[in-house]
Automatic annotation (TrEMBL):
Gene Ontology molecular functions: hydrolase activity, acting on ester bonds; metal ion binding
Protein name as catalogued: Calcineurin-like phosphoesterase domain-containing protein
Subcellular location: Secreted
Gene3D superfamilies, alphabetized: 3.60.21.10
Cofactor(s) essential for the protein: Zn(2+)
Organism: Aegilops tauschii subsp. strangulata (Goatgrass)
Quaternary context: Homodimer.
Upper taxonomic lineage: Eukaryota, Viridiplantae, Streptophyta, Embryophyta, Tracheophyta
UniProt cross-references to PANTHER family, sorted A to Z: PHOSPHATASE DCR2-RELATED, PHOSPHATASE DCR2-RELATED-RELATED
């Protein structure tokens, strides 16, 4: 919100004095310095709009560590970003005008709901056969704020127009990867980023996820079918969201890892004594015997805690090439 003058929520009594928005900024710097990432993704509720005097200034402060450290970054909107001095459209327009951003307002020439629906292509290693192909695809979607249909209560959802754009984009990327030289047997893996959890995040019990669930899943009251759309597309291996601050689990459903990160911000609800945290995703490439870099081999993740040691927890493999669990039998 407003920096030093904005106090912390849900911290231990001994942490209250002097705790402010600046603690959020300091934590982000710590994680960036420790991990040296190639890309930072902000998964919505990047600012607490209602408590911010100037939404543009607050957004500049929220993203500042990535820009100061000269990193590329991307963002999606949550349900609180537009509650201040900028509309939802205004917030996204501000984000796409900022330094080092890879965020986009919306795909050109497409009628689409929301603001901040776009994709990024991660190219293969320069000088290799895959240099001109996207070996990893990233999809970013606006999951809305509140329902815009008056008789449906609760949060927003990913609409049909957004799903049509996603399907078309995924299909086109997969065609290029498989059909253009050098042809690849399987589609390049993809990751999806949006803010509000899909109803399918409620599919897990504590025995089949890594991490914790400490609050209910605040998904929309209707299921718009985006999970099924991702399953049918076949390239998305993991989806990452925000929204529920004290959930930080990853669970696998029908071949897709559904992952929370846990809350990073101090001026937002949390749980006293439970460290603020950030999720790190690491993508490894295959290397041939002759030393040539190829496509993605595996996708791993872990979380960093804002404690004394910046502790790493819950390291796990989200996806390995050839681990889709598909078996063919011939009669």
């Amino acid at each position: 919100a407003d920096g030093r003058s904005t106090g912390c929520e849900d911290v231990l009594p001994e942490q209250v004095a002097g705790c402010s928005d600046l603690n959020t900024t300091a934590f982000l710097y710590r994680v960036i310095r420790a991990e040296d990432p190639d890309l930072v993704v902000f998964t919505g509720d990047n600012i607490f709009g209602a408590d911010s005097t100037d939404a543009a200034k607050s957004m500049d402060a929220a993203i500042a560590p990535a820009i100061t450290m000269n990193l590329r970054w991307a963002a999606v909107l949550g349900n609180h970003d537009q509650e201040g001095t900028l509309s939802r459209e205004g917030v996204m327009r501000h984000l796409v005008g900022m330094k080092n951003t890879l965020s986009r307002f919306n795909p050109e020439g497409v009628e689409i709901d929301g603001f901040g629906n776009y994709n990024l292509e991660v190219g293969g290693v320069e000088g290799t056969l895959l240099a001109n192909k996207s070996v990893l695809n990233l999809y970013f979607l606006d999951s809305g704020d509140r329902s815009t249909v008056w008789w449906i209560p609760g949060y927003g959802w990913i609409k049909a127009s957004q799903q049509a754009w996603f399907k078309q984009t995924s299909l086109s990327l997969q065609k290029n990867y498989r059909n253009e030289e050098p042809r690849q047997k399987e589609p390049a893996p993809a990751l999806a980023y949006f803010h509000i959890p899909l109803p399918e995040f409620s599919s897990f019990t504590a025995s089949d996820f890594t991490g914790v669930k400490q609050e209910s899943i605040s998904s929309p009251s209707i299921n718009s079918g985006f999970f099924t759309t991702m399953v049918e597309a076949g390239d998305v291996k993991a989806a990452f969201i925000g929204h529920d601050h004290i959930n930080d689990f990853c669970g696998k459903l029908t071949g897709i890892q559904l992952c929370y990160a846990g809350g990073l911000g101090y001026h937002a609800y949390g749980k006293a004594g439970w460290s603020r945290r950030a999720r790190v995703v690491s993508v490894q490439l295959e290397k041939t015997v002759s030393g040539e870099w190829q496509g993605v081999k595996s996708i791993k993740t872990w979380k960093r805690l804002d404690d004394q040691h910046l502790t790493t927890i819950d390291s796990e493999v989200l996806w390995n090439r050839g681990s889709n669990g598909k078996t063919l039998t011939h009669a």
